[in-house]
Recover the amino acids of this structure.
């Protein structure tokens, strides 16, 4: 199982983990969490079962300039 942490986030920043089946590329689940005021600038995504699946972590940071406000890892 895996989860991801968003460090130094601001209110409304979002971190997510998406899982897909290894063969067909169909989305199995998306788990996400948003930074709320008082979260002390970091949050963890919920755990996801990624056994025999591909997983990808993403972050959406609206406070950054367009084009640099959303990023994802490769699937692993």
């Amino acid at each position: 199982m895996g989860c991801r942490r968003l460090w130094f986030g601001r209110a409304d920043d979002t971190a997510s983990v998406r899982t897909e089946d290894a063969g067909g590329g169909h989305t199995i689940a998306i788990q996400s969490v948003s930074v709320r005021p008082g979260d002390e600038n970091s949050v963890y995504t919920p755990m996801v079962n990624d056994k025999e699946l591909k997983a990808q972590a993403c972050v959406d940071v609206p406070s950054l300039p367009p084009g640099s406000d959303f990023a994802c890892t490769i699937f692993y």
